[in-house]
Amino acid sequence: MKRKYLKVYDELVQLIQSGKLKAQTKLPSENDLAEQYDTTRETIRKALKLLSEHGYIQKIQGKGSIILDINKFNFPISGLVSFKELASKMGQRARTHLVKLASADPTDYIKEQLQLDGSETIWEVIRVREMDGENVILDKDYLNKKLIPDLTVRVCENSIYEYIESELGLVISFAKKEITVEEATDEDKKLLDLEGFSSIVVVKNHVYLDDTSLFQYTESRHRPDKFRFVDFARRN
C-alpha cells in the first residue's frame, strides 16, 4: 500500500499539473491540508518536502508554500552546477540522452575556444536533456583529452563533472559564461521539441580547473519558454 504522504504528493502534483492549483499562488496551510486529507501535519510536511525537492513549490518563510510555474525551470547563471545536480531537484522529471561520444580532431573554432595547438585531440559529447517528457536542452561539450584522457558512455549519461571530481580527483574552479539568443539550427530542430520556436537561448561556457587549465568548452542550447535564468547580485 502506498504511503499516505505519497498519495497526498501525487494528488497535489496532479492538481498543479492540471492548472487547478495555479502558479504563484499559495498552497493551503499545513493545518488545512491535514484536515482536507484527513491526516497528520507530519504527513503533510513529508508531502510538501517532496513537492519542494521536485520543483513544484517553494517554501518561503512567513508566506508558506508558493506554487512554481512548472513550465519554467530556474537555471542559475552564476555558479557551476551540473545537469545531474539540477535534475536531482526534479526527481523523475528530468532525463539525459547521449547522442554522441567521440574522440575527434578539433575544428578551427573549437581549437580557438579551448586554446589548443595543432596536435591535441578532444572529446566531443552531445547530450539531449529531457524534462517532463520533452527534449528542451541540447548540450554540446568539447573537452581537452590531454586533461580528461578517458570518457565512457556511463560517465556521460550520469555526470561528467562528478566523474572529474570524484574519480579523477580534479577540482573544477570557475567558468566564463556568455548568453546569446540565436536562430535554431537544423540540429536543434532535429533533436529538440521546439514546438514552433525559431530561436534558441545559448549559454556558452569556458570551464577551468583550479590550476587555471581550460579543460572544457560547452554550448548549452535551451528552448526559450522553458527556463528563467536567475542570478543573485549585490551592490558594493
Automatic annotation (TrEMBL):
Keywords: DNA-binding, Transcription, Transcription regulation. It comes from the Bacteria. It comes from Evansella vedderi. SMART domains: HTH_GNTR, UTRA. InterPro entries: Bact_HTH_transcr_reg (IPR050679), Chorismate_lyase_/UTRA_dom_sf (IPR028978), TreR (IPR012770), Tscrpt_reg_HTH_GntR (IPR000524), UTRA (IPR011663), WH-like_DNA-bd_sf (IPR036388), WH_DNA-bd_sf (IPR036390). It holds the Pfam family UTRA. Residues 2-70 form the HTH gntR-type domain. CDD domains: WHTH_GntR. This is Trehalose operon repressor.
